[in-house]
Amino acid sequence: MTQPESLAQLLNGRRAAIDATLPTAGFVTGWLLFHQSIVAGAAVAVVLALGLSLWRLRHGDKPRAVVIGLLGVCVAALIALYTGRAQDFFLIQLFSNAASALTWAASIVIRWPLLGVVVGGVLGQKARWRRDPALLRAYGLASWVWVLQYVVRVAVFLPLYAAGQVFALGVARVALTWPLIAACLAASWWVIRRTLPPGHPGLRHPQPPPSAVPGAVGEGSRPA
């Protein structure tokens, strides 16, 4: 199978990791430097998120995705400011990872694995990849790697959040973002490559089932 691109290249995992970790690191840094001030931490996080948003817009990212990322940081900061508990800055991340684990698992069960949905969308294939039984199976198996990624984060974040360990939450957020995303992309790419049969043309070229190929002999039919 000839495949010029990896999942990391297709999904731009490095940029996503920077967007996820920089505002968090800013929040924890501001909180520590200003004597555990939630206001200072929130201000640093929002300023960094705004700077990242402007940089992404200048480099051609879609405004909708940029706005969603900025809003996520702003809402997290507002929650911490409202409750007066610095660990609540991480509450959205805790819930989003738990929800993501459930959503990805459900997508596999209903045979719409989200990895296929995401990659198919990036490649402009819509749902054509689902008509390829080999790709559908490969995306389904590889999506379990992503489920595991979210489960690992919840298992680490939850006890730290319950204990109010703000600095440890910040460290865990950074440690479980880029390194874990990189490992997840590599592992799911390995699963896909191992699952696709020899000779399959790869992610960019979904193959219809034999029965859908013009001139193919269907089950129970005989050639003329």
From TrEMBL:
Pfam families given in the database record: DUF3159
Keywords: Membrane, Transmembrane, Transmembrane helix
Coiled-coil parts of chain: none
Signal peptide: none
TM regions (residue ranges): 32-53, 65-84, 104-124, 136-161, 167-192
Annotated stretches, region: Disordered: 201-224
Coiled coil keyword on record: no
Domain of life: Bacteria
InterPro entries, A to Z: UCP010219 (IPR016566)
Name under which the protein is recorded: Uncharacterized protein DUF3159
Annotated organism of origin: Paractinoplanes brasiliensis
Organism lineage string: Bacteria, Bacillati, Actinomycetota, Actinomycetes, Micromonosporales
